[in-house]
């Protein structure tokens, strides 16, 4: 069934919002003061992001492809798997969805944002940073992490077995994200998604949160550009080696 562009955009909007609710919501649960999950640990965060990708792909994969990530959309367009005339609408829907999802996280954790005095903990619930404060390390990790994500996701979703059983493929994609956060998430988070970092960073800058500190705009270009570069390489690898 072919859906209208409006329906596809709605799927991207809500799918990206769900990603933020599960993903950054899990960070807020771990990092913010006096939550039920305070200091629950990195596996809690990895699970949140894994489910945050798995569920939208299950829900909307058959509608829009469930890119929920501008890097994925751009990479598929560059490699001829997605029409260029839908790229900008998809990205706008993803950005708006990310903003909505992050705002919901803010609303649901509002008392804990007021109680938390650690600026780094607050920032972590919105966007990524490099643990070693090295911009090159930041770029390399976001690029390679997104490369693995896009390459793995396309292999799952577009190879014959994934097309035959898209639900199983969507579950595997969720586990890829879960695994990536546990294995490559130490240096930067990771973001792996320009919308997941840019829109929450904007909200961090404008929302009235005590003790929030700086939004670190001097490095904000890295989790936007690096995932796009990595995604294009990952999509190219899929097309060259495995696309029918």
As for the number of domains, it is: 1
- The arrangement of helices and strands along the chain is HHHHHHHHHHH
Return the average pLDDT rounded to an integer. 97
Radius of gyration: 17 Å
Q: Based on helices, strands and strand pairing, what is the structural class? A: mainly alpha
Percent strand equals under 5%
Global geometry: globular
Number of strands: 0
**CATH architecture heading:** Up-down Bundle
Largest sheet, in brief, is: none
- CATH superfamily descriptor: Glycerol uptake facilitator protein
The top level CATH class name: Mainly Alpha
Low-pLDDT segments, ≥5 res: none
Tell me the number of helical segments per DSSP (H or I, 4 or more residues long). 11
Distance between the termini: 22 Å
CATH topology: Glycerol uptake facilitator protein
Assign a percent range to the helix content.
over 70%
GO molecular function: glycerol channel activity
Subcellular location: Membrane
Protein name: Aquaporin
Keywords: Membrane, Transmembrane, Transmembrane helix, Transport
Search tags:
244 residues; mainly alpha; Glycerol uptake facilitator protein; MIP; Aquaporin-like; Aquaporin
